[in-house]
Write a structure and sequence with these properties.
Layout: E1 17-18, E2 33-39, E3 45-57, H1 62-68, H2 79-82, E4 83-89, E5 98-101, E6 111-112, H3 132-156, H4 158-161, H5 169-173, H6 179-190, H7 192-197, H8 199-203, H9 235-245, H10 252-256, E7 263-266, E8 269-272, E9 289-291, E10 298-299, H11 302-311, E11 320-325, E12 328-334, H12 339-350, E13 365-374, E14 377-387, E15 394-396, E16 398-401, H13 410-425, E17 430-431, H14 437-456, H15 464-471, H16 475-484, E18 488-491, E19 494-497, H17 501-513
Parallel strand pairs: 7-9, 15-17
Antiparallel strand pairs: 1-6, 2-3, 3-4, 4-5, 7-8, 9-10, 11-12, 12-13, 13-14, 14-16, 18-19
Length: 539
């Protein structure tokens, strides 16, 4: 949730700093950096540098007040007790952002103010200068005229170039003529102040269904810098970058949204929410949000959940069980048929994924939920979704292992199951980009382990195409993985695949550690076939 990096416009002046004791809590504003007390790894409080992202009065929630039996206090509170600050800890992952009380601020240490905004250079206007109001109206008229021209152009070229129903919106936007790009980016910067004013409404749980309006058009941007060579970017540096920078995101407003949930109780587990999720506003800022682990309905109190459990007769996800081995089962759900469950699942997953913006329209997707069975029912461990008809041959749209089940090998099991479905379909598959930080590490580990396992257990020569066909991993993912592992060697005038000893030792340790695998003979499934009417969504 760090602010956007400004463009390089020469050396910037240092931020102003106020010594400790010369400022009060009322003068602390959004963008300031100061030290705040937080629990340390040894159980004692430590002072850490953090950036203030939002400030509010302590919310008074009806459910929380009823549970604590509080009575309205008529005595005025001190500012330290009345104010709460949403902070991003310096050098920490974004998922650790949290609301802290004003009593935890260390006012005796230095306060770093935000850098003053650099004055923009005056724009050179060629020709007659038009008033600002007329220029604004002309900009809106140009946008409308450009959209109308694009619509007419698409209608006239419907046969050769009309995108299919599953073509992404970003792909359609990139086909726009060049003159409209500058106008679109100019209008985006003009509307930036208006977007900042609406951030508080998004933080309270307002739903933004129209996500296409937030997609940036990057065709007119400057060419990106070439990536650094692999030899100069080690795995430790990559993990550190992912640890501190958080997940990737496609939407500016998604970065600025403030986390609205504190903790979630799912069955016998109670976990912290990581990111913003658009639950209804009356459930925001509760101490604990109670979720039924079978139907994923959400409630504001334990009493409401217990009353629901007496009526809810679900003991597993409402779909077809297509895989069962030992205590692991997979259920297939159609987003069009199981609308409520899939929407609840998307809301829950949004608490732990910050790079996904789609949580309302679930009809174009199939959901595969992995559960762990016991005597009381099938408890969800994780899931992944995939498009019913993907124009880019993605075999995964969104993948998640719940935090209470992470670091137990379930992530690789989900990834392996998605590729097992691709093998049954006879297609090559790849996850939808961008991936989250943990998803990127999981996929790279799976690709490396699968490719090394194939090379170690084969005696004949294999090519990149052979590896792709046997594993259902796309050629691009195979090439990137082999390049990262430095498997390509130049021998007698041609490139060959050679496995270094360090990679072999790492593979043997990973194979001994991994216990859970997917058994293809336990999968009872045929690739679903959808008609044109079934793939027509939103009509």
């Amino acid at each position: 949730m760090a602010p956007h990096a400004p463009k390089d416009e020469g050396p910037q002046p240092p931020p102003p700093i106020s010594p400790g004791g010369t400022y009060s809590i009322q003068t602390v504003s959004v963008g300031c950096k100061l030290y705040i007390r937080r629990p340390g790894p040894d159980g004692q409080d430590e002072e850490r540098l953090a950036e203030i992202l939002s400030i509010r009065d302590k919310p008074v929630n009806a459910y929380a007040a009823r549970l604590r039996g509080e009575v309205k206090q008529e005595e005025p509170q001190r500012p330290e007790e009345r104010l709460e600050f949403f902070v991003h800890w310096d050098q920490f992952n974004k998922r650790l952002d949290e609301w802290v009380s004003g009593t935890r601020l260390v006012l005796s240490r230095d306060l770093e103010w935000p850098r003053p905004k650099a004055t923009p250079a005056p724009k050179k206007v060629v020709g007659k200068k038009t008033p600002a109001k007329n220029q604004r109206q002309q900009s809106l008229l140009k946008r409308a005229a450009t959209a109308n021209a694009l619509a007419v152009g698409k209608a006239s070229k419907a046969e050769p170039g009309t995108p299919g129903p599953s073509t992404p919106a970003s792909a359609r936007a990139s086909a726009s003529p060049a003159p409209s790009i500058g106008k679109k980016r100019k209008t985006l910067h003009e509307d930036e102040d208006e977007e900042e004013e609406d951030l508080d409404a998004d933080a309270e749980g307002e739903m933004d269904v129209d996500a296409e309006g937030e997609v940036l058009d990057l065709d007119g941007a400057e060419p990106p810098q070439p990536p650094p060579p692999l030899s100069a970017f080690s795995k430790e540096q990559e993990i550190e970058k992912l640890r501190t920078s958080g997940s990737m995101t496609q939407s500016i407003s998604e970065i600025a949204r403030v986390k609205n949930l504190n903790r979630l109780q799912i069955g016998k587990h109670e976990v912290d929410a990581w990111y913003f999720s658009p639950y209804p506003q009356e459930y925001a800022h509760l101490p604990v949000l109670y979720i039924c682990e079978f139907c994923l309905s959400y409630f504001g109190s334990q009493f409401m959940l217990s009353r629901h459990r007496k009526r809810c007769n679900l003991l597993h996800p409402p779909g077809n069980e297509i895989y069962r081995h030992e205590d692991i089962s997979f259920f297939e759900l159609d987003g069009k048929r199981q609308l409520s469950y899939c929407r609840n699942l998307s809301l829950l997953s949004k608490c732990f994924l910050d790079h996904k913006t789609l949580y309302y329209d679930v009809t174009p997707f199939l959901y595969y939920v992995m559960c762990q069975r016991d005597s009381s029912g099938c408890h969800m461990v994780g899931y992944f979704s995939k498009e019913k008809e993907s124009a880019d041959n993605y075999n995964v749209a969104c993948i998640l292992t719940l935090p209470q089940h992470q670091r137990h090998g379930y992530g690789k099991l989900l990834i392996e199951f998605s590729y097992e479905l691709s093998k049954r379909e006879g297609k090559l598959g790849s996850p939808e980009k961008p991936l989250s930080d943990l998803g990127l590490l999981g996929y790279r580990a799976y690709w490396a382990e699968t490719i090394i396992d194939l090379l170690m257990n084969t005696t004949e020569d294999v090519s990149i195409d052979d590896i792709a066909q046997k594993t259902s991993i796309t050629h691009a993912d195979v090439m990137n993985t082999c390049t990262t592992l430095q498997l390509f060697k130049h021998y007698k005038g041609q490139h060959v695949i050679s496995i270094p000893e360090a990679v072999q030792e790492r593979y043997k340790k990973a194979k001994e550690k991994r216990k859970r695998r997917i058994h293809p003979e336990c999968l009872i499934w045929k690739p679903p076939v959808f008609s044109r009417d079934q793939l027509r969504f939103g009509w």
